[in-house]
Amino acid sequence: MVDVSKGGTPSGSVNLTKGQAINLQKNDGGTLTAVRMGLGWQAAPRRGLFGSRTREIDLDASAVLFADKQPVDVVFFRHLVSDDGSVRHTGDNLVGGVGQGGDDEAILVDLPRVPVHIDQIVFTVNSFTGQTFQEVQNAFCRLVDETNGDELARYTLDGGGQYTAQIMAKVHRAGTGWQMTALGTPTNGRTFQDLMPAILPHL
Amino acid sequence: MTAELVRGQNHPLSQVRLEVRISAGAPIVAGATIGDEQGQVLGVEWVAHPGAPTLPGLEVSKQAAADHRLAVDLGAMPEAVHRVSVLLALPSGVGGPVRFGAVAAPFVAVTGLDGTEVASYTITGLEAESAVIAVELYRRQDAWKVRAIGQGYSGGLAELLTDQGLSEARHLADTIDEAVSRAHSRSVAPPPPRALDGDRTRRTASPAPAQSAAPYAAQGPQDTQSSGAPEQAGPLVQGGQGAASAQPSPPYGAQDPQNTPTQAGQPDGSAPAGHCGGAAQADPSATPQPSAPAAGAPIDYSHPRRRTAAPSPAPQAAPPAGPGQAARPVAGDAGGWSMDERLYNQVWGMFEDLARSVAAYRSAVDFADSRLEKEIDKALADPRSRVGRGDAAREAARAKHAELVDQARAALDRDLSQLTAEAEVVEPALPLPYARWDNPVWHGYRVPMEMPMALRLGDLRLPESAELSIPMLVRLPLERGLWIDSGGESLDGSLLDSDELRRLAMDAAVTHAARLLAVHPAGEFTVHVVDPAGSAASALAPLVRTGVLAGPPAAGAAGVADILGRLTQRVDLVQMAVRGGAADSLPPDLDTAQQLLLVNDFPHGFDDRAVTQLRYLADEGPAVGVHLMMVADREDAAAYGPLLDPLWRSLMRLTPVPDDHLADPWVGHAWTYEPSVVPRGSQVLQQVLSQVAAARRSGNR
């Protein structure tokens, strides 16, 4: 119960619905420099005997950097930093749900450092071990102002289904600033590479 | 805590249910062979591969992939099984790369079921090989261990399996290829090539394994950026492929009386980056450190027995910047226990930031170029476009191109000016081992009381930032030997007279040796010189005249044989003592100093036995404090053919003149290396060596 245990959405944060976009700026209106895309999930409770046994859900968060719909770089558990240094993955979490209320995996984006030709960064979560989202609950992504920890936006996914990946959100250029759009598209694949066909329509 | 293994190193496994995670820049085949107590693979049914993916206690993937997770249950292995060798191969006949040299270095990690890494290994130095034994899990006295192997085979799976003793190797290799191509026809298209290329360095947020294995990797031949000769790059990459003598070596991780336990540790180059946002706060406990004292504690790089003072206070934080202004850089603005360590980390942070900023710039320019090309092609192909409209389209495309390139340049200039400002405060603050020879700190030289953590061997630059140079710091004790290349030509294409180049190479070698002598405490670093024909007498004069050498330069075949014999014996003795856990049993008269052998004119004066000994020293020496510095033109030794390839490959190649052959561990740019030179007319080398010699004499008294 990620959200509820923290008493709902922190003030100032926008709860996004699928397809909704917000402009990214500091809560005081200033320019954002560093943001963190936090992704979290929990194993759905098991029914019946031994229902409390811990189960592991190994979801992997990835970020794909696009320039004019061409993938340029990918940040994932085996390539933790984009070559340009602007996007950093904080590391693979193989269990999920460990930090209740916290993020299971986080990807940091240093916005001024994003190369000028990169116009969209798409965030995905996929199940390497092939578990479906039926076994996952409370999957969310949230964007945090890394400089002060303020949550800017949160998107909680609908209930799970028979798919192994989710295209969560994208952060993209809009004018001189950046926007975040909640995507929430279920798809299938073990790694980001499998997700490419599903990502392309969202660019 | 993860042990980052180097080739030959082993690590105990406390669990029997494991995963072997493999990651490569391109789809590869993963499999495993199991062997009995003698290491024999008794038949094809002892091999798990895509065509037969399951054996008791072992399961591999059915298809080629860039990432694998092999499930291993050592407890379920039959009693007879004593060895599990994990093998990787590039799939043949599917149009992918055919040599490991063309893809990112494969990364292998042994993890527990909860994903905790137990040990990891980056297989560097592969070239023409298309199959490789990555690691082996083996049973020793009822306990299992993992060993990093990295044995490559240019003959592919067939050669690898033959080497494992399988008579049906060729047939089995064909079976595997067939199974893979069947699976391939079912699988999705390979990932975008750029993303693959981007996957050259992995786990950089936690320390890059590439960095700890080979902080300055040689430029890979796949780098089109490099104007340097790719064929020369081959021998520079560390470690890797199998020399006859490259059998799995004894535990490198074992403590040796001369080596600090920190030898394999390489601080996180990304951590200190002062201006890369929140990402700079990397967890210090994630630093690779096989023999780390306590999990979770910050890594202490200084010698445990030489700690003389409490950690010096942290430098003052950078003053808050005014609005819209970048923070003013401060020397030592990075993590570390001592000022030297903080500066070391800061230099690595600057190195990484520059590499990445230039990567961003190059990526943007490449994109602008290819977009321009596409748009012009489109304008040309459009049948409706009249002459005038086609011109307008081309004009618009060019304007778009120029605008993007200008933006990219502006972003790069912003980063460069920040890094330049940082370099301006860092360079003067560098301690003597990291300082250029023209730094005044050298005039206050005193023989040090302890070995520094690193040494500057020169400067690194990129063409985009000729003004900004990054000190090239290598960890001490040296993890690999040095090769000062006296062949080839200089970067600007001007063919130097070969005698001139040889002289410059020897001067550079003497300067490096002098610096090594200067930064070690009195009597803790011994330099031997082999100059078979006496051709380097004038270059060696500063070392000979001041009396800092262990003895006069060895001349002739007899001199070569004598000195190699002594050093080989020393390596054997120390290895035996380390293996037997009996460091006390070393002869009392053994010189406990680190040893450096400087070889000029190779292979002049070397017979076959001497060559074999030299290769042995290059392989086994660094772990027991015996180091090699070769001043050589590879062409001179061409008669030996591929026999010497592993030797050249095991050494770090440096040049006497600027040359762009060194790659950074993050994006693999070709950096121009320039050796540190003593300013013309300066007496600093002479003065420093005189003090070193005086300290040696008083120590021996």
UniProtKB/TrEMBL annotation, chain A:
Pfam families linked to this entry? TerD (PF02342)
Q: Where is the TerD domain?
A: 14-190
Its domain of life?
A: Bacteria
InterPro entries reported in the protein's UniProt record: Stress/Tellurium_Resist, TerD
Q: What is this protein called?
A: Export associated protein
TrEMBL record, chain B:
Q: Which InterPro entries match?
A: P-loop_NTPase, Stress/Tellurium_Resist, TerD
Q: Where is the TerD domain?
A: 64-163
Superkingdom of the source species: Bacteria
Segments of skewed composition (Pro residues): 312-322
> Could you tell me where the Polar residues compositional bias lies?
256-265
Annotated Low complexity bias? 205-222, 279-298
Q: Where is this region: Disordered?
A: 180-334
PANTHER family from the xrefs?
CAMP-BINDING PROTEIN 1-RELATED (PTHR32097), GENERAL STRESS PROTEIN 16U (PTHR32097:SF4)
Membership in a protein family? Belongs to the CAPAB/TerDEXZ family.
Record's protein name: Export associated protein
Query: What organism does the UniProt record list as the source?
Result: Streptomyces lacrimifluminis
